[in-house]
Amino acid sequence: MESIALNTESASISIVIASKGRPDILSETIESLHRQTLKPAKIIVVVPSNEDLPTKPLGDDVSYLVGFHGLTLQRNRGIETIPNTVKYVGCFDDDVELRSDYLEQAAAFMDANVSVMGISGHMLADGGISRQEAKELIASYELDGHSRGGFFSRGKHHILYGCNMIIRHAVLNYERFDENLPFYSYGEDYDMSVRLERYGLIGKFDGCIGVHLATPGGRVSELLRGYSFVANNWYFLKKRVVHLPLVLAWPRFVLICVGKSILTSLWNLIRGDRSLDWSGRLKGHLLAVTDIFAGRCHPERIKQL
């Protein structure tokens, strides 16, 4: 693989991982970060309780913040601990496996492209895969022709993928994750991406390789997830954080966020799909629609459901 010239002093990066209820999986993700050719200045793990932490020591570069619950809240508390001298902030889920040069490639690319505010990498798989299988998949992967990959900032790639995001630290002095999105914070990556686009480019960079295990466990119920699919998009629309002009964003919300969500859940329920609690998800969709007409629809309503 072609080496990348990188000033490691100027390319410092710290990592924030929000986690809950999966200490063993979290521990393996931290080990993946320890194998990076560009070592993180700090790995900040933010969890609701001490029971969410790995039992084995993970090194002096790992610090823990305990007592915070909710993805956006956890990420913001972690970001607040990072000094301004650190150039980049990585926000990762607790169940990713990264190729050893992921951070090095990210820093080199963003150093060379100052107009880029944030990137997500190329995930070779997204769920349905074990940690060992993820390592083997990464080891066998070869990028076509050149090591640095391509950068894509249009279409579906203009939204960062919340499981792996590298964001320029300076812009996080102006934008933070929206703490009105509680618990698993559906759409937090969409919300942040739309706001980051006000400052520069964001997109997918194929030089950063990883796998998202999408491991089940530590997650919210399908009732709350179904409510959030509708309510959070309603909230984004109301605060005008949308990727389309409002004249198009409103019909998109009705047709896609409401109509398609309800029909998909209803169809899977009718055909007897047991992979998810489709009844709970459908109920969540319908509760959100009812709340819209009642004037009380808001992401934080899931705390009361």
Low-confidence stretches: 1-5
Give the end-to-end Cα distance, rounded to a whole number of Å. 51 Å
Mean pLDDT: 92
Helix content: 25-40%
Largest sheet: 9 strands, mixed
The helix tally amounts to 8
- Rounded Rg: 19 Å
Broad structural category: alpha/beta
Label the overall shape: globular
Strand percentage: 15-25%
Number of strands: 9
Please give a structural write-up.
The protein is 36% helix and 18% strand. The protein has helices at residues 23-34, 71-80, 102-112, 131-140, 188-196, 222-238, 246-270, 278-294, and strands at 13-18, 42-47, 62-66, 88-92, 96-98, 116-126, 151-152, 164-168, 201-212. The termini are far apart. Helix 1 links the parallel strand 1 and strand 2. Strands 1, 2, 3, 4, 5, 6, 7, 8 and 9 form a 9-stranded mixed sheet that branches. The longest helix has 25 residues, at 246-270. By secondary structure, the chain is of the alpha/beta class.
Can you describe this structure in just a few lines?
With 305 residues, this protein is of the alpha/beta class. It contains eight helices and nine strands.
Protein topology:
Blueprint lengths: L12 E6 L4 H12 L7 E6 L14 E5 L4 H10 L7 E5 L3 E3 L3 H11 L3 E11 L4 H10 L10 E2 L11 E5 L19 H9 L4 E12 L9 H17 L7 H25 L7 H17 L11
Parallel strand pairs: 1-2, 1-4, 2-3, 6-9
Antiparallel strand pairs: 4-8, 5-9, 6-8, 7-9
Helix pairs in contact: 6-7, 6-8, 7-8
